[in-house]
Amino acid sequence: MSIPEQDRDDVLLWRAAKGDDESFTLLYRRHQAALYRFALRMTGNAWAAEEVVQDVFMTLMREPKKYDAGRGAVGAYLFGIARNRVMKHLERLPRELSMEARNGNGVRAGDTAVNAFTPVHWAEQQERSERVRAAVLELPAEFREAVVLCELEELSYEEAARLSGCPIGTIRSRLHRGRALLMAKLEILRDVPRRVSAATQRSAL
Amino acid sequence: MKCEEFEAIGLERSGVRMSELDAALRDAAAQHAARCPGCAALQDSWQEARMALQGLREMTRDAETPQRVEMRLRQEFGIRHRTAKARSAAIFAAWALAAAAVLLASVNWWNWRLAQTQHSGVSASAGNNVIRNSVVPASPATDTVDEATLVANNAVGDFTLLPGSLPQEVDDSAIVRVGMQRGALSALGLPVNEERVSDWIQVDLLVGQDGLPKAVRLPQSQ
Fold first, then answer.
1. Residue B214 host element (H or E)
2. What is the CATH number of domain A1-111?
């Protein structure tokens, strides 16, 4: 199903640049969730993710003419800005792990209702999720980005490579190393071949 | 398939990207996992990790930016574009004001020019009336001349200034047609043909406000 001409992202952006509040809001609502989830999964911090999304749309508001339709869709452009902001955030606070970050409603960032059969099961699931979240956040930024894009966002290699601005082979390689590191951190690596362990150690360094 | 190759593709066993691989590679990876316990263990480990990641994905699946961000952005958008509109309006008003000022100045100048021209015309016309009323009796030759010839042309272009007169002195002058002997022209400082000094002629005199002639011309009929 094709999007009507007047609702296309580039048309909305053009109208927003002319001062159309509704178009800007529509554009924001269309993309904010994906950008927020990416930023949240990359930073593990709801405040940082919120700031990233706000920065992205402030940039769009200030300099709408920087978008070049010939270089890709508006969504990819916004994602590129978000990615830069996330990387800057990670550079600024390389060891920040705000696992206890809570949003304005007092709910842990990104938490949603989960199926909890029993309190014990629920507690186990929470603990496991926390461990995974911590393990993902401890990955080096480029491996984390590959894991987030390919495993959490479920993008194809091609899409992930396009959004990251690197070749598909690089994404594959980063994902491979990211997985190995993740397994090591989760201590679920059992009888792993030596070469993977070595790769893990190299990556960890 | 070697273990290195398996690591590159085998971990996708149940992933969505497995469909991106061709069937032959998938089969080769499955056969390798069946033969190599190390790779099979790696694959199982990854499946466990994948399930853990899936749990994390589900937890953050519905995460959205808090409503306050949208409020802040909309507020900022409104301020930014209101300011821009106000600035545009101010620039437009300034230009409009400047254009109006120029237009007003042009109209004023044009009116002034028009008034100046009309003033000159009225002066000349007034002089013409004077001729109609006062000149005719003053001319001894007018009794025999057609009345139409006594009406002076009020165009002041072809007058010859008399010696000692200044051009600006003729602005408010009256034109008077008089009859005189040609020799009298020498009294006004004009050259005269000696053989025809006794001829009677009609001349137009431009008489200034002081009553003295300032310029002279011979009517067309002469």
1. strand B213-217
2. 1.10.1740.10
Residue numbers of the domain that contains B32: 3-60
Among A67-71, A92-96, A199-203, name the most confident range. Answer: A67-71
Our CA angle for B75, B79, B84, nearest 5°, is: 150
Q: Which of B56, B74, B88 to mutate to test the interface with A (most CBs of A within 10 A)?
A: B56
A113-205 carries CATH number 1.10.10.10: yes
Query: Across the interface, do B63 and A190 touch by the CB < 8 Å criterion?
Result: no
Instruction: Find the CB nearest A196 among B42, B59, B69.
Output: B42
Q: What ipTM does this complex have?
A: 0.71
Q: Which residue of A has its CA nearest to B76?
A: A58
B211: left (phi over 0), alpha (psi -120 to 50) or beta: left
Q: Among A12-16, A196-200, B125-129, which range has the highest average pLDDT?
A: A12-16
Contacts of A116 (CB under 8 A, 6+ apart): A122, A125
Q: pTM score > 0.90 for this model? A: no
Average pLDDT of chain B is 76
